[in-house]
Amino acid sequence: MKSLSLTLLALFMIAANVVSAQDSRTQVLNATQVAKLDLTGKWSGKRNQYSWDKKSFIESFQYEFDLKQEGDIVTGTSTIISSNGDYADMKLEGVIVGNKFHFREYEVVNAIRPTGKLWCFKSGELNIVKDGDNIKLSGSTSSFMEGYNYPCSGGETDITKVDNSNNNLAVVMAGTAADTKVEASMNITTYPNPFIENANINYNLTGDSKVKMEVFDISGKLVANLFEGNQKAGVYNYTFSGKNYSSQSGMYIIKMTVNGDVYSHQIVQMR
Question: Is position 253 within any domain?
Answer without folding.
Answer: yes
